[in-house]
Design brief:
Elements: E1 14-15, H1 21-29, E2 42-43, H2 44-66, H3 104-119
Antiparallel strand pairs: 1-2
Helix pairs in contact: 1-2
Amino acid sequence: MDENETFKYHEGQSVMFHDSLIEHYCMIIKPKKAASDGTIHYTTNEIADIINKALNMLQNITNFYNGKDKDSYAKILSITTISKYRIKKSINALDPIGKIQLSNETMDRIDTEIVKAITL
């Protein structure tokens, strides 16, 4: 890397990434086997292809969720079981749905309110 934190390479030369977001995308979009030393090597063309695919996937997610409400509410008295068929499937491998979790503090508040509602 140079002083601007950019990679210098010649066309066709392999570039290695360690513990980066690009590596995460590489594993989702175009997995490759690791070399004997444990690293995974991608050519610049492969990296460009992976970045383009990741950007397209992220754009699809953005387009889908842009029109949706940004806030969620827990109406304690309306909590019930739901059918597994009503659970939204992810759009693609980079979609955060199903991976988002509430904080322990928020879950504790919901638990407390459920107990209050049931014991009254």
